[in-house]
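Rotation project, supervised by the postdoc (A.L.). Task for the rotation student: set up a whole-complex structure prediction and record inputs and outputs verbatim in this book. Inputs entered:
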Amino acid sequence: MKKAVVLLSGGLDSATTAAIAKSEGFELYAISFDYGQRHSRELKSAKAIAQSLGALDHLVISFDMTKIGGSALTDNNIDVPIGRDFAEIGQGIPVTYVPARNIIFLAFAVSYAERIGAGDIFIGISEVDYSGYPDCRREFVDAFEKTANLGTKAGTEDGVRFHIHTPLARLSKGQTIKKGLELGVDFSLTWSCYLGGQKPCGKCDSCKLRLAGFAQVGMKDPLEYVD
Amino acid sequence: MKKAVVLLSGGLDSATTAAIAKSEGFELYAISFDYGQRHSRELKSAKAIAQSLGALDHLVISFDMTKIGGSALTDNNIDVPIGRDFAEIGQGIPVTYVPARNIIFLAFAVSYAERIGAGDIFIGISEVDYSGYPDCRREFVDAFEKTANLGTKAGTEDGVRFHIHTPLARLSKGQTIKKGLELGVDFSLTWSCYLGGQKPCGKCDSCKLRLAGFAQVGMKDPLEYVD
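Outputs recorded:
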């Protein structure tokens, strides 16, 4: 079996992406990041998802992005937007954008993949329910893939070429949930809320997109929300 | 004054690179990495160099690359090669190569630069005294620069475009030392040895390239070596 490194945040996109990788016959090597995020509770979900999908390893890399800050997810002085409608969510880059986060995440994923001899990396970004994050565009991933193949052993005799898979790139949140359900993903294990409280808030951009996705498939989100 | 983020390892290449950035009129924001490297003592040198050059800030990001391993610098079970001649050093990718290290380092540098509004990033890689590291080639840096400009706010209204400077790309170690001396770099503050002992070993690839560089300029290395 071929190995794949899967970026696992603990959300429903990455859980579905991992399930897709598994359905394509890959052995899963999960990687998650404890980066000082407000909702670090998502890492418990990542662990549960990795276990439920039979990942052979789950690497958690820790670093402190609060030292850099500049995002509502890594600076407690910046509020997470609450109660925005979808027109607002779709406008510009939100304050929950973390500077260069996916470049950092993919860089570690490439390092891990190179180490274990995996050429395939899966990341659950989507361009459709566009969250305004520049690092969620396939164009960015294409450029990163090229960079990874130039900045590693790839291309040398004992190197593997990297291919970065983005199976959700063209899927809406509803389509992602539908795909996940087909593949048996247990969405009760996932976490999306930016606030990271005991229960999801239902009002931050991430909760709103998630809830709209479940509404699209006519299903109730298995998570219990505040109120 | 324009801000520049400078990657500072503590070695003589990055010290000279920082001095070049300063000489070009940039305000220096240094970034270093405590990544589980065998020679973490280089971070003391990085701090001293940042201070000596009047850096306005020195950010140290910590993460544990020993979890990934696969390099003599991050896995104590892999020996650092000692006493190799230059023909051997020039052959292939050495075991001191750390998987995707410069991709990770540059990713954090971009995050920091985006946060402080700096478009200029300096890294002291050289293609001339080629150490066999694929992530020291300008071709890689060009691809990374493009990636950074796609995966961040760059290109949006409030984003800065990134330019990654590699002023040493075409310099030999001797030429780098000469340049550093012209700019007043205090090489007694720098550290290059991979072993990271009390004194540099003089026999690892990094020490050998350094000593050859000083020999090229007919100068004694100010560091005191073992024996």
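Student's summary: The radius of gyration of chain B is 17 Å.
Supervisor addendum: Residues 2-216 of chain B form a domain with the Rossmann fold fold (CATH 3.40.50.620).
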